[in-house]
Design goal:
With about 400 residues, the protein is of the alpha+beta class. The chain has two domains: about 60 residues, Structural Genomics Hypothetical 15.5 Kd Protein In mrcA-pckA Intergenic Region, Chain A; about 230 residues, Pseudouridine synthase (2-Layer Sandwich), CATH 3.30.2350.10. The chain is built from nine helices and 16 strands. Strands 5, 6, 7, 8, 9, 10, 13, 14, 15 and 16 form a ten-stranded mixed β-sheet that branches. Strands 1-4-2-3 form a four-stranded antiparallel β-sheet, with no helix packed on it. It is elongated, with a radius of gyration of 29 Å. The chain starts with 6 loop residues before the first strand and ends in an 11-residue tail after the last helix.
Length: about 400
């Protein structure tokens, strides 16, 4: 920053390709779009010394000149919660690897990713342990409370946007391990069953729904080993990202994940000394990194899962090979899927608005509808116009009466 308060920034790799106006929204949100447009129109914004337009795409390494002004009144920084020494140690013990863009954790089973009603201990609440001299890291994806394994945390707003785009575009490869009850008849298969929220559960439980309400969901599975007909060790790749997708899909084909009583009921628990905890682990994550080389991280198994593997006679080394990458959908397929999702979202929103409207009307509205229906039924009906005989309505066939 110079004496006249002109600001100078170097475009970072995780902002490569971003529009100029989006860069301001990400890094200088206090500067509104109208101000950015005015600065660009009057030549006050410069990229590598040249005038720039709000729609221009930035390239990593470029120098961005921003004029003084446009700043909103100073706001107090978000108060960071003081973590105890025990919480800091707990957060640091989860770290698998970290760099300037990401922190990769091995989330233990039983720890929620985010807070909620009655949930006070969660990963998000421990992220202040990594924010001593910079912005607070943020979540870019989630794992169920009882699912363990690789959890990616973005260090900066720019890297959060970068990684989120990879997850949304399905270019990130997520590989899970699970122990399941029984053995599928097909060793390597694809489960394609649409999912929807189960009514009456407040959105806490999902179900297979092949009506128009169901959202497309695809899971690839591969049997790595089997313990007779009692259980199997499988590798799972979610090709879509629906809530509880892996758990619902495995239960739907008759092989629930061991310990998943929510979807498998009592059949999800094996007799003997196998732990009753859920045996689902995010084993590996491969995702593009803003610095270039892909990030490829593997998480060790939690204790109860490793013990279950040993008791069933499974060897971790047999699952070390990277599975074949699933074929990527074409651009047209992605567009069609996006359109279908947007259509479904609008439909759900209309349903919510109708529900709220009906709630606001209450019993008075119901009475009005009932009375209207009564008036309609009481009104004399207009006599129906007599229909002509079928022979009179049907045009005569061409070519004489014998032709049909």
């Amino acid at each position: 920053m110079t004496e006249d308060n002109v600001r100078s920034f170097t475009i970072q790799p995780d902002d490569d390709g971003i529009r100029l106006d989006r860069w301001f929204k990400r890094h200088l949100p206090q500067v509104g779009f109208a101000t950015v447009s005015r600065w660009a129109r009057t030549g006050q914004i410069r990229v590598d010394g040249k005038r720039a337009d709000p729609a221009d795409r930035l390239v990593a390494g470029q120098r961005l000149r921003v004029p003084p002004g446009g700043a909103a009144p100073e706001k107090s920084a978000r108060a960071r919660r003081e973590l105890t020494e025990e919480e800091i140690e707990r957060a640091e013990a989860m770290v698998l690897t970290q760099d300037r863009a990401a922190i990769v954790l091995n989330k233990p089973p039983g720890l929620a990713t985010q807070g909620g009603s009655g949930t006070h201990e969660h990963v998000d609440g421990l992220l202040d342990a990594f924010a001593t001299d910079g912005p607070r890291p943020r979540l870019v994806h989630r794992l169920d409370k009882d699912t363990s394994g690789v959890l990616l945390i973005a260090r900066t707003p720019g890297s959060a946007a970068y990684f989120s785009k990879r997850f949304a575009g399905r270019t990130a490869r997520k590989i899970y391990w699970a122990l399941i009850v029984g053995v599928p008849s097909i060793d390597d298969g694809l489960i394609e069953l649409p999912l929807a929220k189960q009514p009456g559960t407040g959105g806490e439980k999902m179900m297979v729904d092949e009506s128009e309400r169901g959202q497309p969901a695809r899971t690839r599975y591969r049997v790595l080993d089997r313990a007779g007909n009692r259980a199997a060790w499988v590798e799972l790749q979610p090709l879509t990202g629906r809530t509880h997708q892996l758990r619902v899909h495995m239960a739907a084909i008759g092989h629930p994940i061991v310990g998943d009583g929510k979807y498998g009921g009592q059949e999800a628990f094996l007799s003997g000394s196998i732990s009753r905890k859920m045996h689902l682990h995010a084993r590996r994550l491969i995702i593009d990194h803003p610095d270039g080389a892909p990030l490829d991280v593997t998480a060790p198994l939690p204790e109860h899962f490793a013990m279950g593997m040993e008791q069933l006679g499974f060897d971790e080394e047999e699952g070390a090979a990277l599975p074949e990458a699933p074929p990527q959908p074409s651009r047209e397929a992605k567009k069609q899927a996006a359109k279908a999702h947007a259509k479904q979202y609008r439909k759900e929103r209309r349903g919510e608005r109708r529900g709220r409207t009906r709630g606001e009307r209450g019993t008075a509205g119901k009475s009005a509808v009932d009375s209207g229906a009564a008036r309609k039924s009481a009104a004399p009906r207009k006599p129906a116009t007599p229909r002509k005989p079928a022979a009179a309505r049907r045009p005569a066939p061409k070519g004489g009466p014998g032709k049909r």
